[in-house]
Amino acid sequence: MHHTNHFYGHAHIFARYCGLDRRRPPRINGYLQHGWNALDGFGPREKYVPVTPKFVWTDTMRRRGWARGRRDYYPIGAPWLYLTQMEPPAVPEAEREGTIWYPFHGWERQHVDGDHRRLIDEIREVERGPVTVCLYWLEFGEPEIRSVYENAGFRVISHGARGWMKKGTDPLFPHRQLAELRRHRRVASNRLSTAVFHGIAAGCEPAVYGDPMVLAEEDPMHGGVARVRRLWPELHGAEVDLVTARQIAAEELGVRYRVSPEEIRTVFGWSGETNDL
Predict the structure, then answer these.
(1) By the 8 A CB rule, do 138 and 106 touch?
(2) Which domain of life is it from (predicted)?
(3) Is the domain 93-252 a CATH 3.40.50 member?
C-alpha cells in the first residue's frame, strides 16, 4: 500500500467502515486522495504506477486528472464523510462556542514563510469569541511559533501527526479534529483548505481571511492563491453565506459519490479480507 494512504488515518477509517480491523487496515490497491486541492487531488509532480486506481473525492478531480493525461480515477467521496457518518454528534448545536483557526502550514519538505504576529492581529480584529489555534504538528513542535499564539492568549492545540512512510501515523487524528470542530461555532483559515471544508461538513460557519503566507517553492501548477480565490470567491471573507458554503463543501467533499462498504471492498481489493472484529 502506498504510504500516503495511511495519512491522517484514512485507511483506518475505511477499514472500520468495511467492518475490518481498523488497527491494521489491509493494503489498498491504489492511491487514495488524502487532502483537498485545486488540482486533481494529488501532488503536481507525483508519479504513479500506470493503470493503478486513483481514488478521489469527486468527478471534478477525475476530469482534472484526465486533462493532465492521467487515467484510472474512481470518485468515492472524502474519508471525512465516512467518519462523520460513523460518529454522530455528541454535543448539542447550542453548546458550540468560539472559533477554531487553522494557520496555513507547510510539510516535511516545504515550509511556510509568514508573519504570525500580523495574522494574530487580523484574527483579533475579526473574532468575537474564544479562539483555538490548531497548528500542524511541525509548527506545533516549534516553540518560537507555538509560543506566539499562546502569548496572544489563544488556546493552542494540534490534532496529531499524519505520519510518513507508514511511521508515526496517528489514526486518531481525524477523530480529534471532528471533536474539536463540533465544539466550535466557526472554522477559519488564511487559505481555503481541507480543514475549512471539514469544518463546514461538521456544522461550523466558515471564514477565510488574513495573510495567506508563502509556501517555499510553491508549484505554479496549482495556480496559487489567486486561482483559488477566483474559483471559490464565495468562501473568502470574514463572513461567508452558510447555505452557499454548505453547498460548495458538499460538492468538493463528494457527498454524492459516497459508496457502500461492499463497493469499497471491491474497488480497494478487500473482497477477500475477513472480519477481524
Answers:
(1) yes
(2) Bacteria
(3) yes
